[in-house]
Amino acid sequence: MTDASLRTPDAAADSGGDGTPLLELVDVGKHFAGITAITGASLALYPGRVMGLVGNNGAGKSTLVRIVSGVQQPDEGHVAWQGEPVRLRNPRQARGLGIDTVYQELALADDLDATANIFLNREISRGWGPFRVTSSKRMRREAAALFEKFAIQVPASGTEVRQMSGGQRQGVAIARALLGGSKVLLLDEPTAALGVEESGHVEDLVLRLRDHGVAILLVSHSVDQLLKLCDDLCVLRRGRMVGVYSRRDLTGSDVVSLIVGADAS
Ligand SMILES: Nc1ncnc2c1ncn2[C@@H]1O[C@H](COP(=O)(O)OP(=O)(O)OP(=O)(O)O)[C@@H](O)[C@H]1O
To answer: Is the dihedral of CA 91, 79, 68, 139 positive or negative?
Structure first.
């Protein structure tokens, strides 16, 4: 691998200054044999802003995440990247642009340490041909620097991730996305399996990512968490987009009302 692939995001380095979103969904819809999973979904993600994605079970959140991450393609509307329409054919293409997803399962290699996990399939090596060797020292150094930059409290080397806490594992999975140069991070219920203290650590990390200019789409069922972390909230209900709201305009009971469909007033 080359040094150029070792990019971590930096504040507002990309679009956003001119008001163009990094990523936009325009009237996106997806149907399965007569079932509307989602329709009329429009939202924009900007560097250094957190968009919450909220809705009851079956509201269409996962479908929307799968569209943004390139797993599924919309059959209505379109996706735009830095103002240009784009067709995200698969997750690899999305990652190539800088869109990465951290799913609840995390998909870590349990028997490897944090450094090996974040460099998995993109190991740094030196030399050439039969003399090519992986540069463990340099990977450990770069992993440690990345953990320090985002204050991710994990042992960089020597501890298998299976021995780590849920919050630490979440940190490793997020670091892996950052190492690939993610500008847009989709976080799928990152604290669903965590206790109060560990959830707090992950929430702090989300805010640090935001402060470093990452655009975040956060799926969460916790209204408190959404109000704490998000700048904007996109509310879905039964496959339809209810709207995108500024967090400043919402109380917790407004959010609940929007989710279940009662009059928010
Ligand atoms: N591949 C599929 N085939 C058929 N129906 C699907 C498919 N994927 C999603 N759906 C349907 O689309 C609707 C939205 O599903 P989706 O998983 O996006 O909701 P969700 O908000 O993520 O729900 P949850 O919080 O339970 O994960 C549901 O009615 C679901 O059954």
So the answer is: positive
